[in-house]
Amino acid sequence: MERREIAVIGGGLAGTATALALAKAGFDTVLVAPDAPADRRSTALIGRSVAFLSDLGIFEALGSKAEPLAVMRLIDDTRRLLRAPTVEFRASEIGLSAFGYNVLNSDLLAALKAQAANAPQLERRDTAARSYRIEGERAVVELADGGSLAVDLVVAADGRRSPMREAAGIGLRKWSYPQSAIVLNFGHRIEHRSISTEFHTRSGPFTQVPLPGRHSSLVWVEEPKLAELYTELAPDKLSRMIEDRMQSILGAVTVEEPIQRFPLSGASVDRFTGDRLALVGEAAHVFPPIGAQGLNLGLRDCEDIVRLACESRDDPGARVTLLRYDASRRSDVRSRTIGVDLLNRSLLADFLPSQMARSVGLGAMRALPLLRQFAMREGLSPGAGLTGIPRSLRERIGRHET
Description:
The chain is an alpha/beta fold. It is built from 13 helices and 21 strands.
């Protein structure tokens, strides 16, 4: 049996980022994961996620592959009796050049893996982890290749079907929505000017997020039967439909392969920790692709477990450390879960008071700059709505302006 300080299970974005950060913090770290499949989806990295990845040298590696998100526009396209006014959230209004950056997941993972390959205290094992157990003062991770690792801390970033979570006996609450998401990238004739536009429709959000050049990503939430029909359309017909749905704000559209479709669902755990185990990313919470919450929350998981491990360097898997991690993640994840769920369900509701509440809320955002600025700061970093954006965070977000 081999001995290491920390084992990170899972080679996706959250797992690779966590392993890299722990190694850079000086821990003897092993990343246990086979290669992740190619992923042409994109992620809008917001606020603290930008700062965390910046400290790992990721944005320098990405260069022009990361597109700034300077404006976020909400358009009510529900065509209901009570419609909310169009609201624009501008980063310049809170003294920033951008809220964050949109990047293809494949480019982000490549940058993380390149940095990880050069981290002297990080080893990668190209195998899966079967399970883990506690032996004395250590956790023992059993590997698919027959080996085993004795570690102080296991960080499980092994996805929504996490074997580590199951081995720890941590309960998972799951739910689904009567919707599917169509996810794709597309080219367009008119410059996006670093503006992301979210159309609120009766079937769910229809969200365009800028990519470098005259390209954008799209998350289109729709009724399942219609989503299935649309993904089977010829590319030129689908392109024209998307242009129409976007009210031609970006001109002619050209859809790019692949076109993905999957049912909308969510999940949350009973607790974020087990004996010498911490859950991060989709092992701890699953979000529908609404509001750019999924990976951003996962990276805040990474940030918190690395910070707390550093504060307990002699034993990063100590019970008190993991209790602090559970407490730090619980309120953040719960508040974001409620927010995303309410937004999505408010679009589906035909109940007139629900329409009124949503219209009044967005109307207040448009009319009251202080309320709008509070919402923007809070979206960047939990707690910053009242306390303000820390100077260090401002500097690290603005550093990557292109």
